[in-house]
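Form 12-C: Joint structure prediction
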Amino acid sequence: MIEGLAALYIFMLAGFTGYEIITRVPVILHTPLMSGSNFVHGIVLVGAMIALGIAETPVEQAIGFVAVLLGAGNAVGGYVVTERMLEMFKSSDKDKNEEAR
Amino acid sequence: MSMDYLIEGSYFLAAVLFIMGLKQMSSPVTARRGILWAGAGMVLATLVTFGAPEILDSDIAVTNITLIIVAIAIGGGFAWVTGKRVAMTDMPQMIAMYNGMGGGAAATIAAVELFKATRETQLDPTGSLTIPDTLGVDVTILAILGAIIGTISFSGSIIAWAKLDGRLKRSSLLPAQHLVNAAIAAATVGFAIAIYFSNDLTPILAFFGLALVLGIFITIPVGGADMPVIISLFNALTGLAVGFEGYVLGNAAMIIAGIVVGSAGSLLTHLMAVAMNRSVSNVFFAGMGSGTPAAASGEQGEMKEIKAQDAGILMSFANQVIIIPGYGMAVAQAQHKIWELTQLLDERGVKVKFAIHPVAGRMPGHMNVLLAEAGVPYDMIYDMEDINSDFKNTTVALVIGANDVVNPSAKDDASSPLYGMPILDAIKSENVIVIKRGRGTGFSGVENPLFFTDNTRMLFGDGQKAANELIVAVKALG
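Section 2 - Result
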């Protein structure tokens, strides 16, 4: 478990890390990167699983069920979309024409 | 006990994979590996969570785990199918939707925690306990903060999706919308405070209801041109909400991933807003393109039409053609035809370049992705700063489905809502051909003087059809 001040340090360091990652990114990668970070916060799925796991009444279970459903949508959808987008950055010229279907 | 170490260790590894994955995604060379790494982290974290003691120790563990699996199958299955099926052109709204789902998940986690805490608090015989007595002050505050942010991100992202997908056209709801929003925001905060000092379900329900409405009301007046900024902002907000709920659950992977995305997303939002010469608060409160087009000077003279045949001839004998794609090209799916046209012109010895405005389309980089899909090599694609000086040496600037990004009033009309936004100087080239579906204004709702200048010709029609006609025209020359 993470509590109090230790969490505050994590918040701060994670904040700087995110900032550092984005500086000096070429414009062409802005959309894929937004999509990629959208996937990364799909980790909310893990929290949703725990929320449903600790639910004790039908109402809590119902809300937890929605949480997992939405979280899974975020994680899976974020991955599929990002992967498809980045697939086009494969190599430069050669195999591109075949890929364009 | 050893299970604890396995789980905590896996979360740690997942956090490392997320950060390194994002880092790799910030360079075109390693970007593909980045998403694979982050994906591996996600799979690992998800799998070990099934062994979490909180889940296994429950009296109804079997039921809950079954529900978890069913929910993952439904939510994940839906996202898998929609994500695989969606056309490249519709990517921005899908990102908005998946992001909204993440925000909703964060908010519902908070809801479960608050419902549970309320029930446990009410068990106290004296009836004087409040939610913070059960959850702790810090956890209660962050749960509520994460809930409000996540809920707004959820309903706001769904509205953004509906607007981009063309399902929602209106951009105003009520008179004095901003005042109404302020009132709802104040009421939401009021109920948030009420949650803190009570052990009752009513303020919780009212709080979530109001936050949902707030997200909708905030997003509806936002103009289409500002959508990328909004989606990016909601992405950052979801990250923040996930980080806060991570604290509530004592989950380090959620805190790190959430906050990293929160700060990276905030910076990305800022970069996009700067590219459009707008501030983030401006996007929310100015309501550019919110129904009342700033028809400052009205129409300026006549638009002059050109036939595809003539346009084709003009381009065939040009020294240099610069193609400026915009969202209209994405809608018309015209990128493949445009690439075919480019190759034909290239064979005739015409120099062809693509000019991409930082915010062309619905997101920065949107046009690059589409052109890459069609097979256009990178060395033909130029950023705004690199190509603007080149328009004066250009015979034809072909504008396809772009409008605001070539609007000269951004430079010379201080009363224009676009004023100050950097634009592509298409107007400086010898001839400008604009492929456009109709005579309407761009997404900002601002009239474009470029369309009325002497060297501009309009080629009306759907982007793909027009590109096809140009191909026929160029081919006919043999």
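Section 3 - Comments
Chain A has a mean pLDDT of 84. Chain A has five helices and no strands.
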